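Risk mitigation, structural track. In case the binding assays with adenosine-5'-triphosphate fail to produce interpretable data, a predicted complex structure has been prepared as a fallback.
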Amino acid sequence: MVIDIREVTWLREDKQILRQVNWQVQDGEHWCLVGQNGSGKTSLLNIICGYIWPTKGSVTVLGQRYGQVDLRDMRKSIGWVSSSLMSQLHENETAERVVLSGREATIGLYTKPAEEDIERAYTLLEQFGCGHLRDAAYRTLSQGERQKVLIARALMASPRLLILDEPCTGLDLLAREQLLSMIAQIAEQPDGPTLLYVTHHIEEILPCFTHTLLLKKGQVEKAGRTREVLTKEELSRFFEVPLDIREGQGRIWVSLQER
Ligand SMILES: Nc1ncnc2c1ncn2[C@@H]1O[C@H](COP(=O)(O)OP(=O)(O)OP(=O)(O)O)[C@@H](O)[C@H]1O
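Fallback model:
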């Protein structure tokens, strides 16, 4: 099992930020985590990566029960791509050096990289259609190119679990679709990582995401097979507004019901 979270509650200043969360992710599944602002998504990710200790409940990730494991070792198997990472990177680094720094998950590169790592970084950049940008300064890249570089960076460490935290934020339609098709490619790799994709936008949930968890006010509203979770009834209840849904390209497109 990749993630096994049982009865996890996290209290902060008497506020229940997560309430009795149960979540099991099996090998071979890829999950989407959907929740509105403040629903507890980041808190849950912090628990999975061992940055937050739950008030109650147990957390087992990649077969390791937290409390009995060296979290620094554990985190080497988990890639986390988020916009907060983007702001931490040194702006003058080249795209290639940013990718290379993923091997040790450091901000910046402190040792001379091995030739095979340079090759791997370039292959990853090429795979994402960014080979031509290897020597470009990270700060000069577009938002879409930056996201691809950050995903390539995370893949440098060959993680077993890859968290993509709202990767399409700030992307135009074309850049978003390009990034999504690259994410679909990662999902199809037979020995690739388990994906955990966080979003507010239902239409970003690609067919490769076999399962979806809807998180609301710190509680699991629904978790299961994507096609059983993303129904008109479930989504209308979740967003508390009558919705219509339409299927296209194996994805669900949501709109407000006409009055
Ligand atoms: N360290 C903390 N101390 C107190 N409250 C916190 C702490 N961390 C998060 N919260 C609160 O917990 C709630 C959930 O926050 P969280 O960041 O997990 O939500 P989120 O679903 O990731 O939101 P967003 O989509 O806006 O990023 C919020 O109300 C937030 O203010």
